[in-house]
UniProtKB/TrEMBL annotation:
Protein name: Adenosine deaminase
Cross-referenced SUPFAM superfamilies: Metallo-dependent hydrolases
GO molecular function annotations of the record: 2'-deoxyadenosine deaminase activity; adenosine deaminase activity; zinc ion binding
GO CC terms, sorted: cytosol
Organism: Marinitenerispora sediminis
Record flagged with keyword Repeat: no
Swiss-Prot/TrEMBL catalytic activity: 2'-deoxyadenosine + H2O + H(+) = 2'-deoxyinosine + NH4(+); adenosine + H2O + H(+) = inosine + NH4(+)
Summary of the function given for this chain in its UniProt record: Catalyzes the hydrolytic deamination of adenosine and 2-deoxyadenosine.
Amino acid sequence: MSHQLTLDQIRRAPKVLLHDHLDGGLRPATVVELADAAGYTRLPTRDPAELGAWFEAAADSGSLERYLETFSHTVGVMQTREALTRVAAECAEDLAADGVVYAEVRFAPEQHLEAGLLLEEVIEAVLEGFRVGQERAAAHGRSIRVGTLLTAMRHAARSQEIAELAVRYRDVGVVGFDIAGAEAGHPPTRHLDAFEYLRRENAHFTIHAGEAFGLPSIWEALQWCGADRLGHGVRIVDDIEVSDGKARLGRLAAYVRDKRVPLEMCPSSNIQTGAAASIEEHPIGLLRDLRFRVTVNTDNRLQSGTTLSAEFAKLAEAFGYGWDDLEWFSVNAMKSAFLPFDERLALINGQIKPGFARLKWATE
């Protein structure tokens, strides 16, 4: 029935997003306006439509340098309290307009200090933005809740400090911790003190692993660091052997499936970074068939020119997914969110399942 699912129908589905970068989701027009306000002169163009196209082309170029350059521009215009609050508010509004009912949006506070802000001021500005954005969405009849993940950069040395801030702000909107950045040469075990601290504090964290680097990255994230979820995790397929239509799981892949470790998969982004060859060949198809705890995410909406609805639409077309599949992904994501159990259950039973039931009834 997937051929009947249109992008507009999918947009009305109550969706859950776990892996979305704040500095990868700006509106092109906002980038231009913030650049003007900050005197930032390095943008490749000041025309919003052209700028949006440039971000996508640079991210699609196959050049990691060009891909990373795109973030120098977005982070470059996110250095004041006003800019951070605006970007966060618009993020919440844009996700709500796409039918997202719960999102965890991550950002690295240490990347927003160039204009003199303190780490605490960066965090508070973003939290304020999400509050404003949620209120604006509600005023338009759209319910969304946004939790924040504080990210530390794996090539830097501030992970302990960021982890302590994640714990400090966990009762006012910060729901977890993350590390990001180049995997190769920067193993997560370098930040073991931060992860051990978070575990002692009963805090939640995810680790970017198994995207650019393979199984050792996933193994370290889980068995040394104790990650609750894996950011991307696509390379877990390297531990799965398919022969004559039957899959044989290696020890690590079996552990990930048995333990229901959530995989934060970002199909369009994975193709841009070379972690997958195409949507049709993306490991998500096999992993869904094998019933791993797979979730669907956007990663960087600006660079990938995408939305969560668009990601679902691509998967529906590639794999023949229907409403039941999309609901399965959405419930997986809500089960895996860094919210208290009763709050996750309330969203599943109060919004996600009834929302999909209405869509199924309306399109049958």
